[in-house]
Amino acid sequence: MIYIALAAHLPEEQALRQACLSCDATQSCNCSSMGLDFIPSGLTGKITALNLAHNRIKLIRAHDLQQAVNLRALLLQSNQISSIDEDSFASQGKLELLDLSNNSLARLSPAWFGPLFSLQHLRIQGNSYSDLGESSPFSSLRNLNSLHLGNPQFSVIRQGNFEGITFLSTLKIDGGNLSQYEPGSLKSIRKINHMIISVRRIDVFSAVIRDLLHSAIWLEVREIKLDIENEKLIQNSTLPSTIEKLTFTGASFTDQYISRIAVLLKEITSLRELEAIDCVLDGKGEWDTTEIARSRQSSVETISVTNMTILDFYLFFDLEGIETQVDKLKRLSIASSKVFMVPCRLARYFSSLLYLDFHDNLLVNNRLAETICKGAWPSLQTLNLSKNSLKSLEQAAKYISNLHKLINLDISENNFGEIPDVCGWPENLKYLNLSSTQIPKLTRCIPSTLEVLDVSANNLQDFGLELPLLKELYLTKNHLKTLPEAAAIPNLVAMSISRNNLNSFSKKEFASFKQMELLDASANNFICSCEFLSFIQHEAGITQVLVGWPESYICDSPLAVRGAQVGSVSLSLMECHRSFLVSLICILMFLFILVLVVIGYKYHAVWYMRMTWAWLQAKRKPKRAPTKDICYDAFVSYSENDSNWVENIMVQQLEQACPPFRLCLHKRDFVPGKWIVDNIIDSIEKSHKTLFVLSEHFVQSEWCKYELDFSHFRLFDENNDAAILILLEPIQSQAIPKRFCKLRKIMNTKTYLEWPPDEEQQQMFWENLKAALKS
Hints:
Helix content is 26%, strand content 17%. The protein has 775 residues and is α/β, with parallel strands linked by helices. The protein has a 21-stranded parallel sheet, with helices on one face. The chain has a five-stranded parallel sheet with strand order 32-31-33-34-35, sandwiched between helices. Strand 12, helix 4 (202-212) and strand 13 form a beta-alpha-beta unit. Helix 8 (365-371) packs parallel to helix 9 (393-400). The radius of gyration is 53 Å and the shape is elongated. The termini are far apart.
């Protein structure tokens, strides 16, 4: 109740919006299919178009449209309108389109259309009126451009029904049951560009065509069943005929009427084109060619037959006798009509034919010898044999080469498969359509004279032909991964390579086509790499060349941008310069490691690491080997430069003493092939003491350093007197490297033996050394 109360005070325009729900910014209101029983109230002068189609409106009242003074289009089709008030359209002086079709109007009133002086398009077909009245309901429609009328009950057209109309672009009359046509009814219309009439009676057809001979440009007759008619179409008229094109749609012919209509139509000297669509021929081709030949020369230049059904197809004759009637014909199209051959003797009479279309028929290779024999179609420039049953391209080319003036050839949608390396073609052939022919690979069979080549929808993996004159190339729906080589087709202006396996193309590839004006590379799975994006987004003028840009160019990878338009994708610095960044990181890591190595070398980091490793290994072993495992009295650690003193003096003094001492020397007692670290540790563990022969050479020796690195941890950690230091020459503890901190500490805190240069004191040295070894 509250809603009703509020709605009652809404402005009229808002009430209309509530009823229609969809008035756009241009004030075009769509109220169709809303179950309305009346035209909504609240129409205002702002509305320019009103769609009320497919509702349940039964009547139009005088005040319904009174305020809609600016209406340009009013759609009322498919309602239940049976009554319209006389003044219903009194305010619609600006109305240009009125559709009242498919309603229940039983009569038409001139008063309805009187105020509609701006009306251009009127549709009143599909109602229930049987005639247009005694006078013209359209007399005030001076600007009418198209008119569509008629229905299944429409049966009468009277003189004066079209008074007031002088010109129509299109007039369509649904008169399938039209039984009475008063001659001269359509003569008041001075010119009709396209006249469409559905009529079944031959007498009505003849009367209509006589009235339209001098006004219609294109006459289309539908649903007629043509039978014998002996009357002439032109009867003592001095006015020139204007009909240039005559179309029969859904018509039915007999052999007798084919002969008669051929003669009758010759009377229309302006007729240039004859067309038959979805027609039926009830006959075998037994035409009265004698009568046709006796009549005047036909002015028809173009004949087009589409989807012709011949009931006695396999009994049809070979059209013998009509040879003299085809020599002036310039264009012939017989499509979807089961043509399998044209007799050679007939084909030779088409001396003026320039265009021949036999697409969607039953032509086969072994019949081409008859259809395109030598001397046949001598002037032919365009031939369409698409969608037939041709299997061999080599044979097809052989017969087609008889057409010496042929320029354009369409043999698409045949199943050629593999094609030969060499073929013979007409020397002037410039256009060749081989699309949808199951070709897996192109060969030199393709003529080099071509300017346009279409090989779309095949199984091509690449394109390697050299066609120096080619200007247009169509490669849609193949399996190409790259653009063709530009050097082989230097004059290419337009190319379509859409729906292939093309991932990208480079600036160099694109620039190599010097003459390229249009490139259709849409609907491919593009890899949106940084190089590709940089080129395609910043190359000057490329967006004017690419067909379908940007909506048809979609990224397939990387995964993060899949489905996005190529033109809108932006990748990060890391994604675009990954190789450079990886290289930079590797260089920085190398420099960092190099710096660590230099620092480690300078501060003996490697030594500390090795010492740590040796210490860890030593920690896992028993601190003291069992007594039974002691094999040596001492392990001797010395520099190689001091080997003469150790091996020739010390070893002789100790090993030849009584009792002798058993010494472990690395040169003599290390196990060959065993890791040096293990040799050192094992030798120390199997020795009662360790002798260090210290000298300037010792502290500089790498060998001695390793022995200290890998073994001294355990010796010094045990805090025992297993180490015996022999100072072979004077050496300051400060001269010992800092990394030998334990050794320096022992030298500073423990007594060591010094080798005396005086021979008298040397005996005391040996005695002290032996005592130390025995302790």
